[in-house]
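Suppose you are handed a protein chain with no further information: no name, no annotation, nothing but its sequence. What can you learn? This example shows the usual starting point.
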Amino acid sequence: MVSFVTSTTAPISTLPAATAASSRWLWWLSRLAFLLFLMAVAALLWLSDRNEAEEQRATLISDILWLEQDLRFHLTRNEELLGLITPQHAASAGSFEPHARALLANNSGLVQVFWLDPGGGVRQSLPAQTDRYVIGDGIDAAPANNAFRLAASLGKPFYSPPYPVVNDDRQFEVHVPVFRDGRLAGVVVGAYSMRRMLEQTVPWWLTERYRIRVIDNSGVTLAARTKVEASTARRLDYQLPFDPPAMA
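A reasonable first move is to predict its three-dimensional structure. Written in C-alpha cells, the prediction is:
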C-alpha cells in the first residue's frame, strides 16, 4: 500500500507570521496618520494665531498713526489760532479774553493762554496767572523762559519740555511769536494739560482697545488713558516717537 502524505507545516507557520507583520504595520500606520493629523491641526492653529496676531499688530499701528496725525492736527491748528491774537487784542482783558476763551473751549487740552510782551512779561492771562498749581519744570517758572527766548529768536512756534503740576498731571507750552513790521510785538503762549489733552482728543473706541501712554525719553509715564484692564487679552506694544509740529 502506498500512502501519500502531505505536509502543511510550512504554510501554517508562514501565514500567521505574515498576518502579524501586516497587523503591526497597520497599527503603526494608523498611529502615524493620527500623529500627522495632530501635527497638521497644531500647525493650522499656530498659523491662524500668528495671522491673527499680525492683523492685530497692523491694526494697532494703524490706529496709533491715526492718533498721532490727529494730535498733530490739533496742535498745528492751535498754533495758527494763537498766532491770530494781535497786540490790539492783548491791549486789555476785555478784548483778550473772548479770543482766549474760544481757544480754551475747543477741547484740545489747552488750559491757559498768555500774552507776553517783547521782554517776556505777562500782560494778559486766562485764567488769571497763578503759581499755586505749578510745581516747576526744573528750569524756569511757567511760562517757560527758555521757550519764550527761542520762539522770539527763531521767529516760529516753540514748545517747552513737559513739567509737573499738582494732581500728578504734566503740562507743556507752545510759544507763538507775533511780529508787526518786522519786529517782535509779543508772544502768545498756550499751556496744555497732558492729561486733559488725552481725555479730550483720544476717542472712546481707542481707549477700549488699548492702554495709551505718553512717556518721556527715560520711559517715565507722563499721561495715560485707557479702559483696558492690565491683565486682559494679548499684550501688543507699539511705541511711536512724537515731536510737536514746530519741532519736527
